[in-house]
Amino acid sequence: MWLVSDHPANSADSPANAAVPPPEADHHLPAPIRWLSRVELWAGTVFFALIFAGVMYQVIGRYIPPIAWVGAGEVARLSMVALTFITAGYLIGKNGHIVIEAFDSILQGKKLFVALRVFAALVMVATCAALAWESLLMIEQGWRRVTTVLHMPLAVIYIFALIGFLSGVLHSIVKIFAANRPEPRLDISEMEG
Question: Alpha helices of the chain — where are they, by DSSP H?
């Protein structure tokens, strides 16, 4: 087999492994950002549980009509939207968002690589700030409109958008100052419990 563990290319000192950040690459992040990430992850877990519960209740309601409730579908849909917004900052901070990495391999190890990361983080700051501003405007207008079944003001959903995009701004600002350090990577195993 061509992948042998004692091959020199597989050692920890090899240049191929030098570009891979260690799993604890986010240890240099400020404590408030680490706590914010934990809160976002827990909020995302709660919304995911609400999605699961809403969908399962809908399924059970199809087979047991007396307990069917139309609001279960609305709970699942609104939880999905809230999950999307509330985890936006977390995904930005952990590089779990969509990234174009065409230049990463070309510029890896060069000074321009840090400049590219700073530029990307600045674009994310501007984008998240603009979306947070729009969310704020939608919150002001959203108290008049309510959802169909739960009669919940739509402004509540935009509050989650505002929180998520402000978090995205914070995570992006931190990425600017940590552009010369290894970036944290999204670790799916930390989401498994």
Answer: 15-18, 31-63, 71-86, 88-93, 104-107, 111-142, 155-177
